Protein 1
Amino acid sequence: MSISEVVLQVFSGVGTSYCYPNIGSSSSNLKLPFKSYGKCRKRIGLWNIRPLNNCRTTQSCKKYGIWQVRGIDCGNTSNNRLWFSSCQCQRVENISETIGEGSNGTWFKEKNLSPIDGEVNAQKVLDSEEVQQLKHEKEGFMSNGSITKDASYSNGTISIEDEAWNLLRESVVYYCGSPIGTIAAKDPSSTNVLNYDHVFIRDFIPSGIAFLLKGEYDIVRNFILHTLQLQSWEKTMDCHSPGQGLMPASFKVRTVPLDGDDTATEEVLDPDFGEAAIGRVAPVDSGLWWIILLRAYGKCSGDRSVQERIDVQTGIKMILKLCLADGFDMFPTLLVTDGSCMIDRRMGIHGHPLEIQALFYSALLSAREMLAPEDGSADLIRALNNRLVALSFHIREYYWIDMRKLNEIYRYKTEEYSYDAVNKFNIYPDQISPWLVEWMPNKGGYLIGNLQPAHMDFRFFSLGNLWAIVSSLTTRDQSHAILDLIEAKWNVLVADMPFKICYPALEGQEWRIITGSDPKNTPWSYHNGGSWPTLLWQLTVACIKMNRPEIATRAIEVAEKRISAEKWPEYYDTKRARFIGKQARLYQTWSIAGFLVAKLLLRNPDAAKILMNEEDAELVNAFYCMIDANPRRKRSRKGQKSYIV
Ligand code: GLC
């Protein structure tokens, strides 16, 4: 079934009195009429539930933007700034009535679940009493981070892990009473909040994993389904729109006055696709992370019904279509603008940055696992498979660097015009920076940061390298070599706080030209060689995958010495990470969650499988076919050594 057919099927049976997609159905083949949900309205402290079939008119739909998000004709869609999804709470008794006949309706009624939580294996949704209970628990925790009363508090001490859990729970954001994400930072000392009060998609991943590992599935399920609703669908917004299928960088729960009623308010989700972000950067990584989290949710909870839902399947396909769309590009790597991932600022990572490629590869493999086999998907799956083969070959061959490869580049001939050029990208050997000649260890290697015509970005970018291991984008030997390099370069990559985001920093003229003299990205600060505790969790998954957990254990021990006492900073500065970052937020949620995930996984390494992609035998075969097809580089399969161009 093609995506448009899926859309048609989902939208079939829409009567004029039905407005919203039902995000709560657990059945993948249920043809969903878009019933309206009661809205979560506040009036002088009361939860006022709108009758269920009291639908918004198309006029008010337009105002609330959900039709634009989900692409139904709502008339004039010029009021695009109000592009948020509105709150969809409802009383459970009424839901089952509107769901109508069929097992799902009955199930909702019996299980007393809200629409978004309608799944069997998922942890029970928080009912209002539980929400109250949670709020009471939270009251024991002061916003300045000090603990006044807590279950884990005994003899005046509290473990760092318990403190982290308290802080993580404190960061949870609620939407109509249900947990749907975690705020980026809850720093009481910060006067300028900017967008750190948003739920960032990428920042939520370690939070989500921590909750999954703890058996608390609700928040992750809610996050997945609500962010799906925010996914860009309709192609018009202020004369231009993000590509269909793009996931926002972040969203915020806002309380707004209810239409035509001055005394009441309602909650809405307000996404940012980069149109308000500093530098207007495009969040390419969001959709990729979303797919990775969706798979982890299914694997961890055992609840596959979420990924099987028609709207979720459509969401996956839309992300894939956006990524696999034809362009002018000659490479299988994903072409993006600067700042389109964790480094969401100008840092000279436009083109084909490694982080995006590793996430892309991981998302493609994860999506392939989850896509329901159906006729209409055949073309998409074929395109996906072709891309996987080409992408892994390209990265393993052309991004890989170690002593041997470096020496090869050092002796490259240039200006080769031919199909079988050795120096395919016309790299001038003078590009090899003096730092690299000194830095490259005899044992070990890594994937370079970016590859473009006549340009290799030799900087070491941590997240891309770690996720390449996790997703099996690198060969087994390459993965071990990356960990060897991390051990060999411990004094700069970990030093006094794990983990350096990239190495080395851009300095002097290079910094001026490449960052545009960015005062936040000065040498050895923030994205420019700063150290980010959140990267601990990706490091841990990579180490567990290669059966070398002791590396992660060592890094955690380093972090533990300072991180809690220094209030969980967002990042650290200086070459050895000695200072808390100049403009770092304190109580940064993904620093807290990253630490927790690392701890939890080291205790239960098997659980890390929910994030890993194992090497696919078909891909390996295709890879060797490509190698063998090249007469210049015949290699034996036996040794499976690292692949050198
Ligand atoms: C910074 C980081 C980005 C993160 C955001 C919220 O902009 O660069 O990766 O998502 O803060 O924490």
Protein 2
Amino acid sequence: MTVRKIERVIPALTVSEGAGVTVHRTLGTPALHYLDPFLMLDHFGSKNPNDYIAGFPDHPHRGFITLTYMLDGHMLHQDSMGNRGDLRAGGIQWMKAASGVIHSEMPQQTNGLMRGFQLWINLPAAEKMSQPAYQEFPAARIPTVNTDGVHVKIISGEYASQRGPVDDPHTQVTYLDVAFAPNTEFRHTLPAVLSAFLYVFEGSIAIGDRKVAAHNLVVLGLGDSITLTSAGQSARLILVAGRALNEPIVQHGPFVMNTEQEIRQAFDDYRNDRLVRTEARLGSA
Ligand code: MN
């Protein structure tokens, strides 16, 4: 066993996205452009509705997966595959944009709260122009494990012999939500080949003798075992890992491909209404 140590700590940048939504971004910033296969991590959430109520009206994606996890509040959404609905607190939306999807994402408050995460997961070259796909799971479908003051929700991958509902065949993503009572310890083992990071969003945790506060992402170094501890207060983080693709990427906004030519093609397809291979079925059952 080799313990994974802190490789880098990336403080969140506050950026404005969509039609004027304030998000805390760590992955996908100049400090951490790409952590193969992860392209972006946005932590959204504010008690001020003006920070997000304009939402993300219709916009395209091509070449990767968006994984959205709502903590509080909910999100109205619809897409050109014909999916539409309301992602509730604790729910997960996995959208494989692949060859192209146009969708809208409109966050809403519940009891004055709206919080969540969106993670962009890159697709291998062989999958970038494949058929889009969609998975959605309500909170009740997410397994939880409570052990000695640590409460783990398993969104994807495995923990304590339980498996999360999101099936990610391309990069074997593990995605855990870990909540700590004060002075507790969490241990986990992840295959050494996987890229791994964590993002603290409540309280602070310690890795070895180093403390990490909320709104910081930690890139974990090589190894397989992870040990995290909380201090005198409760803490909460997400722990994410996945298999690196080791392919060149060219990214332009919502399009992530392997070459400049493919990016030009994506813009051309979008402008000429050829982005979505699947017939748009907005509003149908
Ligand atoms: Mn989107």
